[in-house]
Specification:
Blueprint (H helix, E strand, L loop, with lengths): L2 H37 L1 H12 E6 L6 E2 L5 E13 L6 H15 L3 H13 L5 E4 L4 H9 L7 E10 L7 H4 L2 E3 L2 H7 L9 E3 L2 H5 L1 H5 L3 E7 L5 E8 L7 E2 L4 H11 L5 E6 L6 E7 L14 H8 L21 H10 L9 E2 L3 E4 L2 E4 L8 E2 L1 H7 L2 H22 L18 E2 L2 H5 L14 H8 L5 E2 L2 H10 L5 E2 L18 E2 L4 H17 L3 H6 L7 E7 L8 E8 L6 E7 L6 H20 L1
Parallel strand pairs: 2-10
Antiparallel strand pairs: 1-8, 2-3, 3-4, 3-5, 6-7, 8-9, 11-12, 11-23, 13-16, 14-15, 17-18, 19-20, 21-22, 22-23
Helix pairs in contact: 10-20, 12-14, 13-18, 14-16
Amino acid sequence: MSNKKKKQVSLTNQSNILILFIILLFSFISGRLFWLQIINGQYYRKLSDGNRIRLISTPPIRGKILDTNGVLLASNKLRFSLIIQPHLVDEYRWKVLSANLSNLLNINRNNLESKYKKGLQNNDFSIILIPEMSQEEVLRFREQEARFKGLQIQVASIRTYPHQKVAAHILGYIQAINNQEYKKLSDKGYKIQDVIGRSGLEATFEEHLRGKWGGEMLEVDSVGNIQRSLGFKSPEAGNDLRLTIDFELQKAAEEALSDKKAGAIVVLDPHTGAIKAMASQPSFDPNFFTQSITTQSEYEKIFLSPTTPLLSRALNAYDPGSTWKIVTAMAGMESGQFKSDVLLKTAPCIQYGAHCFPEHNRKGWGIIGYEDAFRVSSNTFFYQIGVEVGIRELHATALKLGFNTRTGIELSNEESSGFVATQKWADRGRGWGLPGSTPWLPEDIASASIGQAVVQVTPLQLARAYAVFANGGYLITPHLVEGDIDWLDSQYREKVDITQNTYDTIRRGLRKVVESGTGRDLELNSLTLPPVAGKTGTAEDSSGGDDHAWFVCFTPYDSSDIVIVAFAQNTPGGGSVHAIPMAQDILNIWHKRSL
């Protein structure tokens, strides 16, 4: 082949290779464009918008919580924080700003530097330099704001409890949402910077109180400067919550407990179940959980304290002692084994099993009936009844009066159902032994007869049970929020299966307690009060602590408007010494207001 032809073939091959290369190159570019714009176009448009658009969220105002008369129990206040947007400030500018800010507000510059660097490491769009500014700091900054481009005051709504510890266990508290909660609740509109109710009504009515977020969509340039607003949606405020609580009675209950190391007071309407006060000691200040800065030691003081201030004693179960004797009396009469006119011989002590169970005066009271047995709080009278009728009858009667089950209060997640033992419970091992190794003993039923050892009730359960004898024989549903509910409807108020004779006998016995029995100090010290019926109680703590002191009462006797349970935990001395004065403080305020 001639050189000329070889040259032509070579040129042709080179042209073909070049054309093939160009075709492949354009094919690759076209494919890449197709993949970017068609297949993943939506994804990259989102990324582009993310670089161009900023969403500034606006939190909702949480609904207020008010007492029955409109007194604010939980509200909101404004918190002013100083923030910096680091994309608007270079390194040199930051040094000038931090120096000027430190001088203006008398703030440690090293602290500012530390927060700034941490924010840069986290790639924060805005960095909080001062979490909570005083009013003076806000005014001083506003006066010099032109010198601090890139810094701005951020305003947030913060939950506040104006009366500190008052009604803390009812209201509960809120905290910042955690990552696990956020993953579950983000579909419901929660944001990572949100708060959520942790306990009390704040938790129970979280959805009712919280409201909905709003915000503004802003267009920014490549360096973060705001170009224009693309739209604004106002946040929706949460709904208010009006309670049955009466602030004056609640405050009086808290004050009555103030000198006790632990205890509870419950005040309720025996007809509707509306709770007028429910206090627990020791308490806590829910404002602690909305502070901008807290320390580890402060957290430990609340969460790890042996006094358990977060525990509501009103909803926790304890040995009821002699206040339980209404159950034993009702079981005796309703079973037919001990009729209302029965007379029994009391004694210094009565032997059951290996133990001689004593009368509290160590002498006995002679031959007495139900009414006098209540009046002097005879143990040996009620031992005889309880042991004879047996634990099945006692347990069944307890259920009729609402024991061994939750009351229906809105705080059911925090409420103990209490405990009333049965023979099956003992046969199964009493919760700690092997089945068959812990049989039911004669000592158990004797203890159960007077509310000891194998019986545990909450102050709220006790208030509910005594309300039966104050309202004509109905088991009510205690509640803290009225709402649009007819609380006298049969769904919330159940007629107890009890004969009129039993009902009247127990009522007369409870009246005698205050007239001339263990509760007589109440009438001696408060001569102006209407007739009161009630029962004192001194209960051994089955967990090993000092005795508990109890007093339960209702008044006026003939047409009762109020039931009060006063409980002093591990306060030896008896219900007449420690619990009656607590109830008396509440009664005096209630009576003055009802005149």
